[in-house]
Write a structure and sequence with these properties.
By secondary structure, this protein is mainly α. The protein has nine helices and five strands; from the N terminus they run E-E-E-E-E-H-H-H-H-H-H-H-H-H. Helix 3 packs parallel to helix 7 and helix 3 packs antiparallel against helix 9. The longest helix has about 45 residues.
């Protein structure tokens, strides 16, 4: 995928009238002439994602970005929340979950703002987490961020490939090691051979499957629901569950991907981050 910055950014004029900022720019009409047009600066993307071969516009979808944020957030941490928060009680643990969700949304949006700022400063899309760390903290920050990033994601890859191999070995008559290799190979080839729009749809379908399976589990467990337990509260155990709850709402590593996929459109990026983090909150 190629990124093309809009040349019309160079033909833009900005006028401030009181507290309102009016933006005018030259827009190419059907007769290759230029017309003055007023545009809403908040609704405009910074660049366009184009297919390298066909030069067709390939914008990322908001739904796909929401699914990416939600899919990144829903993991082992979310699954561990019932066991971690059971002793704390319904109301205290709900307050902790809401607080961690709000903190995660705010920090994710701030990270997106830094990414957008660097896109404008560097004049290109696809600004990575390492570029952000280097521009903010210099060379040592880049090294520290890169080391942490690699360690975290290799650990996640090992955990998920190992678990995926176990699931395949349980279905087919394969050894766990061979099944893990098959699972990793299938996943890698699929990602390599698919374009972003296909991956968006696949990821959205998988996240939809996770949500449906979650509500299926709720339906099965509803028969053992005891409303009297909702009144239990142990405020003294609140801090013990904060680390796991906070970890459950981590999606920040894919914020640069979301920002690039949505072409720097601040409104779409905000929607994707907040809506994507809200899905695990509801769960």
């Amino acid at each position: 995928t190629s990124v093309v910055l809009h040349p019309r950014e160079q033909r833009r004029t900005t006028t401030k009238v009181g507290s309102k900022v009016e933006v005018k720019e030259k827009v190419l009409d059907e007769d290759d002439g230029y017309l003055d047009a007023e545009v809403d600066d908040e609704q405009q993307r910074l660049f366009s994602n184009l297919d390298v071969e066909t030069l067709q516009h390939q914008p990322g979808s908001v739904l796909g970005s929401v699914s990416l944020v939600a899919g990144t957030t829903v993991g082992a941490g979310i699954l561990a929340l019932p066991a971690v928060t059971a002793g704390t009680g319904y109301l205290p643990s709900s307050a902790v979950i809401l607080g961690c969700w709000a903190y995660s949304c705010v920090t994710g949006l701030l990270l997106a703002e830094v990414n957008l700022f660097l896109m404008c400063e560097l004049g290109r899309g696809g600004v990575s987490m390492l570029s952000m760390a280097e521009d903010t903290f210099g060379g040592p920050g880049r090294i520290l961020a890169g080391t942490t990033y690699v360690f975290l994601h290799y650990s996640l890859l090992v955990a998920y490939i190992s678990r995926g191999g176990e699931l395949i070995s349980g279905i087919a008559d394969f050894s766990p090691a061979l099944a893990s290799v098959a699972f990793g190979s299938l996943l890698g080839v699929t990602i390599y051979a698919s374009n972003p729009s296909v991956l968006d749809r696949v990821n959205t379908a998988l996240v939809g499957g996770v949500v449906l399976s979650f509500f299926g589990i709720l339906a099965v467990a509803f028969g053992k629901f005891d409303a009297s337990q909702l009144g239990h509260a142990d405020v003294g155990r609140v801090m013990s569950c904060v680390p796991v709850v906070a970890l459950s709402f981590v999606f920040h590593n894919i914020v640069p991907t979301v920002t690039s996929s949505l072409e720097g459109d601040r409104r779409k990026i905000t929607t994707a981050i907040v809506a994507g983090a809200t899905i695990p909150l509801v769960m």
